[in-house]
């Protein structure tokens, strides 16, 4: 945005540099031509100003004034086209993506704790949203081997019928070691296995 006001605050003298900068940044041949045109106009106005006689001086002043006004209007007129304001929906989407990535890092850290220190994992209630308010945020993990049906239903894509299958298989075969084993034992739809692998925790 700053380049657009340079022609105005420099009385047009900075217009070649301003438009050359914009041309390089935007890779625009048209802006490069404009930079060359404003350079030629400034050179012509300087030559007229230093030439003897009142008529050349007047012409030089008028040319310099015209370059100043036209280049300033030109820069401001194309500024939004070259650098459109950020769409609020784009900003909102970026925030949502950043939040999702942050939640993923929370799950990764919670898994690390659960792997390295099971006692701490139980103390922090990792994967157990059913145990009431928790100070520790595990990013939405569900302990498939210990969570009750209402917590298992929070897994993505899991229906009440699938919850019943998981609970029954858990009672018959014991704890699961992975989402893949769970999928085989409970005959889960393949489409939900990646989501269960992402959000499921398999503590023993």
UniProtKB/TrEMBL annotation:
<dbReference type="InterPro" id="IPR010994">
    <property type="entry name" value="RuvA_2-like"/>
</dbReference>
<protein>
    <recommendedName>
        <fullName>Helix-hairpin-helix domain-containing protein</fullName>
    </recommendedName>
</protein>
<keyword id="KW-1133">Transmembrane helix</keyword>
<keyword id="KW-0812">Transmembrane</keyword>
<feature type="transmembrane region" description="Helical">
    <location>
        <begin position="57"/>
        <end position="76"/>
    </location>
</feature>
<feature type="transmembrane region" description="Helical">
    <location>
        <begin position="31"/>
        <end position="51"/>
    </location>
</feature>
<keyword id="KW-0472">Membrane</keyword>
<feature type="transmembrane region" description="Helical">
    <location>
        <begin position="6"/>
        <end position="24"/>
    </location>
</feature>
<dbReference type="Pfam" id="PF12836">
    <property type="entry name" value="HHH_3"/>
</dbReference>
